[in-house]
Structure formats: C-alpha cells, structure tokens
Specification:
heterodimer, A: alpha+beta, Uridine Diphospho-n-acetylenolpyruvylglucosamine Reductase, domain 3, 2 domains, five-stranded antiparallel β-sheet, B: DNA polymerase, domain 1, five-stranded mixed β-sheet, flavoprotein (chain A)
C-alpha cells in the first residue's frame, strides 16, 4: 500500500525524497499525476506531497528577478501583477484548462511533468527561465531550455525535485504574447506559440526576439530560425510573415489525434506570424 | 492506508484511504454523496466539481489525502442547514437551465465559485469562460448562462 508523506519544510521534503529515492513520486497539485496513477502508468510506493512547503509557495519579485515557487498555482500566477507586466505569461495562463484545474494545478508540477504541449513552457523559454532543483546535497540550477531533454523527460536525478523557477522580469521595454490553437477551449494545445520582442525606440526594427513553441515535437523549443530572421529587420507585417515561414526548420511535429504533422507545421507558421504581430502591436504598433 | 479527516458538507468525517484514490470516489462510495457525479474520469467534463476550502476543483483530479484538514462542500451541502435552495440552484430552476440534469451539480458548484470569488463583471463572455470546464451534453448552455447571469445581476 502506498505511503503518503506531507513534509512541511524544504529540508524534510528533500530528506524524504532522498530516503525513498527508488520508489517515490513528488505530488504537487496532482492534476496530471492523478491521471497517470489512474491509467496505471505510475504506481509509486511513496508519495511525497510538497504542497504545504512554504519555501516552495508563492511569487517573489525582486529588482531584477522573478521567482515562482514550485507549488504556486496557475490561479495564484493569474492574479499576480507579473501576469500583467509579462503579458505572455498572462496570455498563457488565461488559456490553460479551466478555473477548476487552474485552482489546483501548479507551475512546478507542470514543469516536472514535461509534457511538450504545456502552455506555460513557451513563455518561460522566451524569458530564459532557470529551473531551481533541490536535493539533500543543496540546490542547483539549469536553464529550462536544457531541463526538458526528451519526450516527457526532465533532467532530474531520483533524489531531486523542482523547487521553483526564476527569470528576469525587470526589462519593461519588452513586449510579449502567447497564441494558441486547441480543439476545444481550454484543451491541450494543438500548437502554442510565445513571442517576446524588443524594438528600436522608433519601433521600426527588432533588436531582440524570442520565439518558442509548444506541441511541435518531443519538447517545447525555441524557434531560432525565426528569431535570427527578424533581429535587425523591420517590424512590418510582410517581414514578419516571411520570417514566420522559417518556423518549420526548428520543429518536428507528430501525426496524432490533434492533427497531422503537416497541419501542425502550417499552424505553427500561422501562429508565429500572429503572435509576433500581436506583440508588435503591444509595442505601439508599426508606425 | 492513509487516515484523512475533513469537514464534509458541515459534518466532520474521518476515513482511511489508499492515497492514490481520487476524492470523488471517497465522496461517493464512502460517504454516499451521489450528488457528486462521475463521467469522463479524466478532468474534462466537470460533473464531479466540488469546493475545497471554497474553491471549485474537479474531484476526480484531486487525490483524496489533499482533503485532509480541509473543508469539502458538495452540491448536497451548498444550501447549508436550510430547506431552501441556494440562490444559484433557484436560478437554474427559474431559467429552465436543467435538461437531463447530469451536469448541473458541477455547473452550479463552478458558477458559485465564480460568483463568490471576488470581482466579476457578469458579462456573458466572462460567464462562458468561467464555465468552460463543465460540459453539458444536452448542449443547454444558453439557459445555463442565463441562470448564472441572473444571479450575477441580482447580486451586483
């Protein structure tokens, strides 16, 4: 019979996981985990519920860093000012599942789950976010882009857990967006695209561009071919459309129930164009 | 087995569960709360929605130990001790929002969470968005939104 442990501080969470490293599963909001348990894909001997660990909860904003604790819920992120200042985050949370799931689902749980369709990951990739990972040996950090290293796979040892995520949220001259297509409102993304840009003061040209995509392969990815095609280039619609056609160079979608690979490639080009244009509009638009 | 104690519709209860069990099964099978419906078993349909410390959650996606030390309210406890219906239940009756009725407990629990969660505009698009995690296979959405809209307007 499975044992259920509920540590109340970081040290005991790390210690429990270390003691039961061969047989334990970390529980955060449980919104994805409960399905894996039901389907028999997981049958842990020990479940370690970290949702009462204060050190893993809430959002801290410093002068240049935003730090989100692993058990912070989507609802908490949605109602935090950072969802307005970093618009791609707000856009993303707004289209994740529904209010019931957002009440319980957590940022750390999502990142650990490592599903390539998660909406929260592309915005965080555009923010160059860093994952904070804990164990009895202390803390290490790894860029989110490297953390997901295969289909539903993450760079975590058996005795390690995700404790939070950190990014630079200070740069107010960036604008951003998240654009998604799904079969039903709140459903899993067929394709999701985050964009984050900075332009010259006169808004005529891109100076920095970050584009990332969900549901286009084994992991969410940055679309460097599109980014490279835009840096230094004009912000007009035609230039954006040309650059968006490069999106297929960085993705390798699968045929599945949500659509064919060919359809998803088409969708990726369309959503890249749409997301960048919306972001440009937020800068004040093309003059 | 893991012992859990929580307040269920105003009553303090205790039971032992396999921690992998979803809360919905405990509510229905252990405590007879058949007002908590069961359908998709995968978090899509919303018929099993209950309140955990006042917030709507899908009880098929909540592991039973998560209820320990907390308050669970089902459709059966929504109106409290009184014989009257909760005003959202009454509005669903008044607006003929119930067809086959199977989705209604979940719809009402989500609607109450929306209406009691601080600020709301009461606009139809906002109500539709709030209820998007609840599916009605009779497709009776217009009347359902009418009912929630009426309560939103009467309370503001």
């Amino acid at each position: 019979m499975t044992e259920y442990l509920k540590p109340v501080d970081r040290e005991s969470a790390r210690r429990y996981l270390d003691e039961h490293r061969d047989s334990a599963k970390i529980v955060a909001g449980g919104q994805s985990l409960s399905l894996l348990l039901r389907q028999g894909l997981l049958d842990p001997d020990v479940m370690i519920d970290i949702s009462d660990v204060d050190e893993f909860s809430g959002i801290e904003t410093g002068p240049d860093r935003v730090s989100i604790g692993a058990v912070t819920t989507y609802e908490q992120l949605e109602s935090h000012p950072v969802s307005s200042t970093v618009e791609t985050l707000g856009d993303s949370v707004d289209v994740i599942a529904d209010r019931q799931v957002r009440t319980a689902g957590t940022i750390g749980g999502a990142i650990s789950h490592a599903d390539p369709s998660l909406d929260i990951v592309p915005p965080l990739l555009c923010l160059d976010a860093t994952v904070r990972i804990g164990s009895v040996d202390g803390e290490r950090t790894v860029p989110l882009e490297e953390f997901h290293d295969g289909y539903m796979a993450a760079d975590l040892a058996q005795n390690e857990l995700v404790e939070g995520i950190t990014f630079d949220g200070s740069a107010s001259d960036w604008e951003s967006n998240y654009a998604k297509h799904s079969r039903v409102s709140g459903g899993w993304a067929t394709v999701g695209i985050a964009s984050r840009v900075r332009t010259t003061d006169d808004r005529d040209a891109f100076t920095d561009v970050r584009i990332a995509a969900a549901a286009v392969g084994d992991t969410a990815v940055r679309l460097s071919s599109v980014e490279d095609a835009l840096i230094g280039e004009p912000t007009d619609r035609e230039t954006v459309a040309d650059a968006a056609s490069n999106a297929t160079a960085d993705i390798d979608p699968l045929d599945d129930l949500s659509g064919s690979a060919e359809y998803k490639k088409h969708l990726a080009r369309t959503l890249v164009e749409r997301s960048i244009n919306r972001t440009v509009d937020r800068t004040g638009g093309v003059r | 087995m893991t012992e859990i104690s929580f307040e269920l519709d105003g009553e303090q209860v205790t039971t032992n569960v396999d921690p992998k069990t979803p809360l919905r099964e405990v509510l229905r099978d252990e405590f007879g709360k058949k007002g908590v419906k069961s359908s998709c078993d995968s978090g899509r349909c919303g018929v099993c929605t209950v309140h955990l410390d006042g917030d709507a959650v899908k009880s098929c996606l909540v592991l039973a130990p998560k209820a320990d030390g907390r308050t669970v309210t089902t459709i059966e406890g929504l109106a409290g001790e009184t014989d009257d219906l909760h005003d959202v239940q009454q509005a669903f009756l008044d607006k003929f929002a119930t067809q086959c009725g199977y989705c209604i407990p979940g719809m009402i629990m989500t609607a109450v969470d929306y209406l009691e969660d601080g600020e709301y505009s009461g606009e139809r698009a906002e109500i539709e968005s709030a209820l998007k995690g609840n599916v009605c296979r009779c497709t009776g959405y217009e009347k359902i939104v009418d009912a929630v809209e009426e309560v939103a307007n009467s309370r503001s």
